[in-house]
Amino acid sequence: MDRFLVHQKKAAAAATHAIVIGAGDYPHLVNGSQKLSDYHDGMGQLSSPPLSARAFAEWLINSYENPDRQLETVALLLAENPATTFTNPATGAQLNPERANYSNVAAAIQDWARRGAENPNNLLIFYFCGHGVAQGSDMSLLTAEYGADPLAPLDEALDFRKFRLAMSRNLPNQQIYFVDACRASSDSLIQSQGYAGRTPVQVGQQSAAETPIYFATLSGEDAFGKQGEVSFFTKALIKGLNGMGSDNPEGKWLVTTTRLKEAIDYEVKRAFEGGVKRRQVPPTDELSTFVIHRLKSQPEVPVTVTCEPDSHNQQAEFSYAYQGVEKDRRTPANESWSIMLPAGDYEFRAKLPQGIREPVEKPVHIRPIYRKVIIEV
C-alpha cells in the first residue's frame, strides 16, 4: 500500500479517492518547538485539525457509501505533537500517517490526482484542516513547516486557488474540496506580490470538471474550533453527510452537494447561537449538484420542540411518540427541547399543569434538514 494511504479497497469500476490533511503542529509559529518565524502573523499551535482530519477519515472508511463509485483509497497526512498512530476502523490496522509538510502533501496530492485520472467517472475528495491565510482571491493553506525558510516562508504553503483551478482541468469530471481553515488577511500575502505558495499540479487539457468548494468561513474571516475538539465546520460536515444533507425524491436517501451545503449552513449557524459574539459563515464556490453519498438507514434530523408562546416551555412537559408508542419525554425547563430523530411521522405532546391547559398534541412529519415543532398553547 502507498505510504500515504491509510485505507485501500479495490472498487469494481469507477471509484472514490480521498486525501485528508490535518496540520496542527507548526514548529515555526507561536509556541512552536523551533525558532519562531518572522512571518508568524500571530498564528500558533492548533489542536483541532489533527482531530478533525482523523474524524473525517474515519467517517469515510466507516460510513461512506456510493454504489456507483465505491471508496477505494484514503490518504491521510497529519502534523501533530506528539505524532500518534491511526487505527483503520474497518481493518483495525495501526498506521503511522506521514507528516503534513509540503513535500509530503505535494507527493500525496500527485498520487491522488493520478488515481483520480484513471477513470473520468471517478470522484475525488480533498479535505484540509489547518492554518490558512487569504488576500483577495488568493488563499494559502499552510503546511507544517511554514516559516522554516526565512527567505521563502510561503514555499511551505499550498496555493489553493491555483491548485484547484489546475485540478479542474484534469480528470476526473467531479471533484469536491473541503477547506476547514481561516481566510483572514495576512501581511505575508500582502507583501508577497501575488505569490501564495506552490502547487503540485499543472493545468491539464480536459474540459472543466465540476469542483464544488466548501469553505469553513467567508473570505477575510476566521474559522473556529474548541480546544481539543473537532472543529465546528467538520462537525457540521459529518452531520450533513450522516443525513442532514439528504433527500429521498426517488425513495432512497441521498446526500447531494447542494443539500450538503444547506445542512452545513444550518449546523454551523446553530453552533454559534446563544450569545456568541463572533460568528462563522461557511460559503460554497463553484457549486453544482451531484450525489456524494447514499445512506444505509433513515437520516437523523435535528428537531426543536417549543410552545407558542415560548414562555410556557418552563411549565410544559414535552414528549413524543412514534406509531402510538411514547419514546421519550422531557421535564419542564425554561428553554425549547432539542433532540435528534430518525426521519418519520411522530406525535408531539406538551402537558401543562392543571388549570392552565389540557395536554396539546401535534402530529408532525420529520425529514432533513431540520424541523421546528411549534405547539400552540
What's the arrangement of secondary structure elements?
Layout: E1 5-8, E2 15-23, H1 48-63, E3 70-79, E4 86-87, E5 94-95, E6 98-99, H2 102-117, E7 123-129, E8 132-135, E9 138-142, E10 157-159, H3 160-167, E11 174-180, H4 187-190, E12 213-215, H5 232-244, E13 246-247, E14 254-256, H6 257-271, E15 284-285, E16 291-294, E17 300-308, E18 317-322, E19 325-330, E20 337-342, E21 344-351, E22 360-366, E23 371-376
Parallel strand pairs: 2-3, 2-7, 3-6, 7-11, 11-12, 17-23
Antiparallel strand pairs: 1-3, 4-5, 8-9, 9-10, 12-15, 13-14, 14-16, 17-20, 18-19, 18-21, 21-22
Helix pairs in contact: 1-5, 5-6
Describe this structure in words.
With 377 residues, the protein is α/β, with parallel strands linked by helices. It has two domains: 290 residues, Rossmann fold, CATH 3.40.50.1460; 77 residues, Carboxypeptidase-like, regulatory domain (Immunoglobulin-like). Helices cover 19% and strands 31% of the residues. It has six helices and 23 strands. Strands 1, 2, 3, 6, 7, 11, 12 and 15 form an eight-stranded mixed β-sheet that branches. It has a four-stranded antiparallel β-sheet with strand order 19-18-21-22, with no helix packed on it. Strand 11, helix 4 and strand 12 form a beta-alpha-beta unit. The chain is globular, with a radius of gyration of 23 Å. The model has no long low-confidence stretch (mean pLDDT 93).
